[in-house]
Amino acid sequence: MMRLPLFEFRAPGTVAEAVRILDGEGPKAMPLAGGTDLLPNMKRRQQVPKTLMSLGHIEELQRVELSDLGSRLGACVTLSQIAAEPRFRNGLTALAQAASSVATPQIRNMATLGGNLCLDTRCNYYDQNYEWRKSIGFCLKKDGDICWVAPGSAKCMAVSSTDTAPALLALGARVRLVSRTGEREVPLSEFYQNDGIHYIKRQPSELLTDVLLDSSEGWRSTYWKLRRRGSFDFPVLSVAAAVLLSSKGIVVEARIVVGSVACLPLLAGEAARSLAGRLLDEESIAQAATLAARIAKPLDNTDFDMTWRKRVGAEFVTCALRELRGDDMRGERLLLTRHSSSL
Amino acid sequence: MLEYKSPTPLDMPEVVTELIEDPDPRGPFGAKEVGQGPLLPVMPAVANAVYDAVGVRIDEVPITPEKVMKALAEKRAGREPRFGPDHFPPVNWPEALRVPPPWEGGDGNALNDVQRERPRAREEKVLAP
Question: What is the pTM of this model?
Answer without folding.
Answer: 0.87
